[in-house]
Each structure stands twice: as structure tokens, then as C-alpha cells.
Write a structure and sequence with these properties.
The chain is mainly alpha-helical. The protein has one domain. The protein is built from 3 helices and no strands.
């Protein structure tokens, strides 16, 4: 198997996982589940999805450390802001 085939297979599996996480997020939003643990679970899925998009679809997996730190740091910063706003609203 050549590198392009391996990459295509990897991206396909990641895309399927992204769709599964999106469906999970939608299902949780339509359910009776609530509370801090749900918010934390959803923010964890946001980070995982963001990491896959940054690393694989934006192709920053092999980029310089600064670019990876900036991209992942942004996800962490926004997620922390959302969690802080939720916790202040309790």
C-alpha cells in the first residue's frame, strides 16, 4: 500500500469519526441529559474533532511547533471560555 492510499484511508476513517461525533452531539442536545458532565463531554468531543481537523485536514500534523500550538491553543482557549461562561451561569 502506498502512502497516498494510506492517507486516503486515514482521512476516510477520520471523516467517519467526525460524523459520528457530530451525530452524538446532536443526539445529546435533543435528549433529556443535562449538567456539567454533558458540557464537559461535548467540549472534549470538540477538542478531539478540532485536533483531527487541524492535524489531518489542515495538514498541520508535520508543521512547525508554533503553528500546532497556536491552532490547538485556540481550541483550548475557546473551550475554556465556554466552560467558564457555563459555570458562571449555574
Amino acid at each position: 500500500m502506498n502512502n497516498q492510499t494510506h492517507l486516503n484511508r486515514r482521512l476516510t476513517w477520520i471523516w467517519l469519526a467526525l460524523m459520528a461525533f457530530t451525530i452524538l452531539t446532536y443526539a445529546v442536545s435533543r435528549s433529556e441529559f443535562s449538567g456539567t458532565w454533558v458540557v464537559v463531554l461535548l467540549l472534549v468531543t470538540v477538542f478531539i474533532k478540532g485536533h483531527w481537523i487541524i492535524a489531518d485536514f489542515m495538514e498541520l500534523r508535520h508543521a512547525g511547533l508554533l503553528w500546532r500550538v497556536l491552532a490547538h491553543g485556540w481550541i483550548i482557549l475557546v473551550s475554556a471560555g465556554i466552560l467558564a461562561a457555563y459555570m458562571m451561569g449555574l
